[in-house]
Amino acid sequence: MEVPEMDSTSVLVVGGGLVGLSASMFLAWRGVPTVLVERHPGSSPHPRAIGYTPRTMELFRAVGLGQRIPQSPPDFRLRRARVESLAGTWFEESAWTPGKPDAPVLEYSPCTGTALAQDRLEPILRERAVELGADIRLETELVRFEQDAEGVTAWLRERGGREYTLRAAYLIAADGHRSPIREALKIGRDGRGHMRTVRSVLFRAPLEEYLQAGVTQFQIEQPGFSAFLTTYGDGRWVLIFSDDEERDEGTLSALVRRAVGRSDLEVELITTGRWELSALIADRFSSGRVFLAGDAAHTLPPSRGGYGANTGIEDAHNLAWKLASVLSGASTPSLLDTYDAERRPIAWLRHQQIFARADYKADAAGTAGDARILDDDAMEFGQLYRSTAVLDASDTLPPAARPEQWAGQPGTRAPHAWVSDGDARRSTLDLLQQGWVLFAGDARWCAAVEQAERQPGLGLQCLRLGVDVWPLDADAFRESLGLGKEGASLIRPDGYVAWRSLDLPADAARVLTDALRRVSSAP
């Protein structure tokens, strides 16, 4: 009997969309052997997602993509208007988040977002993942898998018909909202559920003149005709119908012209789409050695907050450092339990926020409850993690707040500040994400780090403010961390605050060692 060929890797990623590619890239950047399989030969011809947030760009910047992905102007905001047609009457604009005139204007990030079509971004991620050492196998599908106490065995099939098995320590399911892997694990979902099935047509037309006002999304409202129109910023547009009706090319061309309001328009139809508008969150994000990420874990409808793809990309980032730490032996597998504990509440928070806002309020069906709308800076930079990988993030704290309201609260993203680097400057965020970092003002903390670093594999680095790090405004940065001159803040490899000490304890080495052991799940 012929024995099937056996391959092996540390992590198998199933699904080569934005989240799967991000996962393989983040893992490879941390030196984790990774294989990604994708059954299609490349990106979908229908671009789908387009907006990526400043936080997503921070993650991409850390792995060397800061210069490869063009970013939006600092003052860019996504604007939507209700119109009769592009060439017809424009009625009113609608905001994603109600304005808050009392909110301070602060710089929270070295990055802005980007408006780049998904089929333009995916090749950049794929190329970077390969550069970092990831093994990307297109036109390869997962047939089935089994897991045991030591790992996961996957049966794979190439488009040409060759079948083989691959053994991995862990598997990441980034295989979309229908996720055969999630179904095989019998993981249920909850949430608003299916709202409707919609159709779309992707087309190319010379419509740049209608973008001069800065509006890029248009709700078309005419007697007997309602649709949504938006641009991908590269000459391509998509018209979305809120029904599941099949239309031929002639009808589609006529409806595009109707939405634009011009009969003389030259229209090139590119492709059509059919997709489900739904909101569902998996009951759990992991099962044994298998982890759900992206749409496999949470399906969220397209929104101006970018709560779909961006949430999935940060899933991948959160999981990557934890897998790397466990696989290196620096952490016990219990660290992986914090993935579900941290990311599933974020998915639910964003689910609620979508239906609390005007864009989807009519579809809420009671889903949002009495959820208070949080401002964009809180949702983008101020979400809170609660898990065993964070100390002192109590249940009484809000799920998100603006960074200056947190002031370095454990469980939140470490703050951005500009620091001097010779004749140049860089962000404090550029000092993070490689490993564990302790920001401290007192030299005695660095002595404590030398003792705490005896835990193998954690690579804790002490950065003294005013010695190793020169913030352009030292007092403001210390305040953003919530520290006095003798305090210290412990930052995880994903840039989140794990623990802090407001002062210098008598036995700083013991206190730090205990905190680091607890939040890192060190053996």
Number of DSSP-assigned strands: 24
What is the CATH class designation of the largest domain?
A: Alpha Beta
Let me know the largest β-sheet: 8 strands, mixed
Question: What share of residues are in beta strands?
Answer: 25-35%
Give the total of domains.
Answer: 3
> What's the number of helices?
13
* Fourth-tier CATH superfamily name of the largest domain: FAD/NAD(P)-binding domain
Portion in helices: 25-40%
Give the termini separation.
Answer: 43 Å
What integer value in Å does the Rg equal?
24 Å
Can you name the CATH architecture of the largest domain?
3-Layer(bba) Sandwich
Query: CATH topology of the largest domain, anyone?
Result: FAD/NAD(P)-binding domain
Class of secondary structure makeup: alpha+beta
What does the overall shape look like? globular
> Segments where pLDDT lies below 50 for 5+ residues?
none
| Overall pLDDT confidence | 93
Overview of this structure, please?
The protein is of the alpha+beta class and 523 residues long. It has 3 domains: 201 residues, FAD/NAD(P)-binding domain (3-Layer(bba) Sandwich); 89 residues, 2-Layer Sandwich (D-Amino Acid Oxidase, Chain A, domain 2); 108 residues, 3-Layer(aba) Sandwich (Glutaredoxin), CATH 3.40.30.120. It is 26% helix and 27% strand. The chain is built from 13 helices and 24 strands. Strand 16 and strand 17 form a beta hairpin. Helix 6 runs antiparallel to helix 7.
Topology record:
Layout: E1 6-14, H1 18-29, E2 34-38, E3 51-52, H2 54-62, E4 80-83, E5 90-94, E6 114-115, H3 118-131, E7 135-138, E8 140-147, E9 152-158, E10 163-173, H4 180-184, E11 189-204, E12 217-222, E13 225-231, E14 236-241, H5 249-260, E15 268-282, E16 286-287, E17 290-292, E18 298-299, H6 309-328, H7 337-356, H8 358-361, H9 376-381, H10 403-406, E19 418-421, E20 424-427, E21 437-440, H11 443-452, E22 461-464, H12 474-481, E23 488-491, E24 497-501, H13 508-520
Parallel strand pairs: 1-2, 1-10, 2-7, 4-12, 10-17, 21-22
Antiparallel strand pairs: 3-6, 4-5, 8-9, 9-10, 11-14, 11-15, 12-13, 13-14, 15-18, 16-17, 19-20, 21-23, 23-24
Helix pairs in contact: 1-3, 1-6, 6-7, 11-13
